[in-house]
Amino acid sequence: MQPAPLPPLSLYIHIPWCVVKCPYCDFHSLPQRGPLPEAAYVAAVLADLDAAQATIQDRTIGSVFFGGGTPSLFSGAAVASLLAGVAGRVRLAADAEITLEANPGTVEAARFQAFREAGVNRLSLGVQSLHDAALKALGRIHDARAGWAAMEAAAAAGFASFNVDIMYGLPGQTPDAARTDMEGVLAVHPPHLSLYELTIEAHTAFAHNPPALPEEDMRLAIEEQVTQIAAGAGYERYEVSAYARPGQQARHNLNYWRFGDYLGLGAGAHSKLTDAAGTVVREVRMQDPQRYLTATDRVATRRVLARTDLIFEFLLNNLRLTRGFDEGLLRARTGQGLTDLQALWREPVRRGLLAWDADGVRATALGRRFLDSLLADILDNLEGRKDRPARAR
Q1: CB distance 18 to 68 below 8 Å
Q2: What angle do CA 68, 294, 58 make, to 5 degrees?
Q3: Mind listing the pLDDT tens digit for each residue in 21-48?
Q4: Of 325, 346, 265, 320, which is closest to residue 61 (Cα–Cα)?
Q5: What are the two backbone dihedrals, phi and then psi, of residue 320, each rounded to the nearest 5 degrees?
Q6: How many CA atoms lie within 13 A of 167 on its CB side?
Q7: Which of 38, 40, 65, 206 has CB atoms 3.0–4.6 Å from 78's, for a disulfide?
Q8: 60: domain range?
Q9: How many whole angstroms separate alpha carbon 72 and alpha carbon 112?
Q10: What's the whole-model pTM score?
Q11: Strand, coil or helix: 360
């Protein structure tokens, strides 16, 4: 019997530093203290990649994503050195999507050009709002003018695509304020939008000192409005928070949502990798940048996904997609068929949260609105199965 083909592989490079840590951010990031150790960090990431060669072997990498933190704090020369080192060690697809996150206030037009010359072909801009009061409430270091300037510079820099992040449900926000944010962003014609509701995550500054957010009815009105404005401007909502013009979907993020593989390099980066036997392993790199610079083995933890975890993580990602998933993808990633897991679909279908038909399984509009609760119920169902294996710890 032929082994199942391995999932597509992406590369994620984590740059952990930022100017200040935003009070809502729950990603691994550290405030910048003095000059960044660019050369040493590039060398460490490439040494980490060398150590991972036996794991990824000769697989082709279809996309690269620089995330953080604030990757745009790095110079174009450092990014160029990283990408050249990657290209010299692994096989990059000829049309690889290479994305770099950038925050207004840490970039200018000349730096965008340097990133593009380094090989970056897609930017993701953390604009968040075009209202100064909202940006201040979010703890952002830039103002609305800097947000406008960054979008206009990205549009003029010749990237194959760029994304703009906008948040809604902000402290004191009204539907009118959300509408003007959307109208301002759409005036620049970004190929891709990420529209996120502000949520209070554990272990953030906002969790300890939460701001006053709009009431539920107001938040739902704002969400409906930004969604309608995006649709009216020709953007397809292909994932819970992702909207794209035709042909401009984020290929790197789609690989995550379709439960593909990714190698994460850099302090605090996460990986999900499948071996030739079909075993799925999650790795986390050590978080302390100073230790990461000098360590021999930079992997802090490794965990094999048990069957229950594998199924749940597949659903956690794929149910975010508007189109959901089909039989072929479910079987390729988990070894299970749609009817094998029908006990998971039956009740959510009855409640109108999931649709299950010949095309596969997908969350309905109602299911996407209550996705966290839906997934919690699915996890409870999975863990209640009599044939469940012991969960990996």
Answers
A1: yes
A2: 70
A3: 888 777 888 888 889 999 999 999 999 9
A4: 265
A5: -75, -25
A6: 21
A7: 38
A8: 9-255
A9: 9
A10: 0.93
A11: strand
